[in-house]
Amino acid sequence: MKAALVVNRVLPAVDANLAAILNMANEAADEGAELVVFPEAAVTGLVNNDNPVHDLPLGQTIPGPITEALAELCRERRLWLAIGLLEREGGRLYDTAVLLTTDGEIGLKYRRIHPGWHGRRADESVYCRGTELMKTRTAIGTFAFLICGDLFDDGLVQRIRDLGPDWLLFPFARAFDDGSHSQGRWDREEKAQYQQRVKLVGVTTLMTNYLADERLDGDSSFGGAMVVSGDGFEIASFPLGKEGVLFVDL
Predict the structure, then answer these.
(1) Strands 167-172 and 141-145
(2) pTM of the entire structure?
(3) Which residues share a beta bridge with 127?
(4) From CA 171, how far away is CA 228, in angstroms rounded?
(5) Given its phi and psi angles, is residue 8 left (phi above 0), alpha (psi -120 to 50 degrees) or beta?
(6) What is the pLDDT of residues 200-236, one digit of tens each?
């Protein structure tokens, strides 16, 4: 399987972000990718502030216009495509990821279980969490999702181990408090922690983080992508602070 982990630059405009996502997925397909993986909240950024008036409009319906546009591309290019989206269902908001099939169907939908994507005082009737962990079988193996802080929850790690997928898809959104894109700090302080958590999962993990544009409402997610084997070793990586695609043969 040839996979493409995309680090897209997230702008304040959803339409511009979707256009860039479609372009980058097409470029990945041109290079022979079968699977394309995008970050958490890839069309908006994780810019929610616990005010439903501000945050609910960030949510996308699933299925809806965004997933339909992506599904059309998957059908045309025969791609599997994974992406994180803030999802709106009625008056509720979820941090969600979907895997679209080569037929343009939603093959897997996962709602983040760990609550760290919103503040502790956020209204729990609006800011909701999933409960289910599932895997889906495809022509290129079985897949499951975790999103961002889920990876650091021991209970969820054990549930993924019990589930036993071939591949773990891990869209995330990570930023440093000082707003920097410091590769050195990542390498010194955090990279090994992510590798160790993947080792606990025991499943080869494809992780990608979006790159926040400087105009994105104070967000400073620093980009970067990495594929880590089930025994915790780095297979391939893409540098922080740079928009682009990491290609890897798995």
Answers:
(1) parallel
(2) 0.97
(3) 93
(4) 13
(5) beta
(6) 999 999 999 999 999 998 899 999 999 999 999 999 9
